[in-house]
Amino acid sequence: MNTLVEVTDFYTAEFEAVAGRLPGRELDWLQALRRQGLKAFGRLGFPTTRQEEWKYTSVRPIGRERFALAVETCVGLVEDDLGAARMPELDAHRFVFVNGRYAPQLSRPGKLPTGATAKPLAQALREEPDRVRALLGRRVRADENGFTALNLAYFTDGLFLEVEPGVRLERPVHMLHVSIGQSEPAAHHLRHLVCAGEGSEVALIEHYVSLGEGTYLDNVATELALQPQAAVRHYKLLQEGAGGFHVAAIDAHQLDDTHYRSHNVCLGGALVRNDIRADLDAEGARCELFGLYVTDGRQHVDNHTRVDHRKPHGTSHEFYKGVLAGRSRGVFNGVVYVHPGAQKTDAQQANHNLLLSRDAEIDTKPQLEIYADDVKCSHGATVGQLDENQMFYLRSRGIPEPTAAGMLTYGFAHDLVEHMGLEPVRHLIEEILVRKLPHAAELQGVE
After folding, report:
1. CA neighbor of 355 nearest in space, from 294, 443, 399
2. pTM above 0.70?
3. What is the pLDDT of residue 437?
4. Mean pLDDT within 51-64
5. CA 123 to CA 60: how far, in whole Å?
């Protein structure tokens, strides 16, 4: 990897060249924040495997490239071009971002109920900068690592969503992020701010797709604030391209009796890193974290999760599964931290992995750190191959071996998908799984 000085010099010079085009350039407080992010990156650089949190994931492929800010263009993109990203059955408030910037001609925001505001972050900075200032950088900070630092310095757009107390969004909010390949490596820095008021209900779909070829970096930060009794369902679906790098930080701050439910599905990308945190900061808070990653070739997917139980009577259930083929590698590191005084905590965590080739690899590390004495906590992990007894049972009933293997693999993965409440999202993932998993052709003909 190039030296920290060389990398810092590149991104510093790049920032000076594009700063005048970034949203909120007229806001002194935001310019100060951006420069704090740039300064933090100069100090931190990109993470290395010498750091405990990144010991299984080398970001050298990212460090070797020079990811200039993506060009502002939709190159005549029309809705039919969205192809596999489309969900015809989905009735949603749709916000499309192309190469990190809002694309109004592809978006269908629709009419939101009274008390709900959803708009591009760049627009929110123009129209209500004080409200953005109150939320920006409160949960995902610049000093966490080089990626969060660059995100704060460079972010170009994202979604600003605020739902007032008692408001229930009947339709989900769909954030569709489209990456279009460019001649040179390009970066898309996105920032999402979500505030769910007391007793409100929101469903979010955070969706990433790639059109064409090219090397690019999606660097994303999503900050969620859940006021008492709020409920947020958060679906994240990655269909990144073969040249796509995706690094993301998601942080949900939960108050009394809130419910945060996360579905994190990774079905593409050369190198993916997700940091998902749920901070249960009041009594009765509840979170559910579901994750599925399906990899092949030389893909690398790293999911880091952290659940902080800070107050009594908190509940967290976490269930992640991986299907790995080729020479791909998966990483799961899940931490459940029960703070002193967080009595009556109920925390469950599990990670199960299916290896379809001898060269696939998984590093799994579920962790419990408990500093309260009246809790119910469990965690575990498994790594294995297709069950020989189940294969024998299917073969004995006349099912060919490839079809039997496909059925078992699909069933293993689908166990996570069936937890999803939004049918159009579930159907899209099911279609992708049938195409992506081995022996899909045989599986399609099986009832």
Report:
1. 294
2. yes
3. 81
4. 96
5. 35
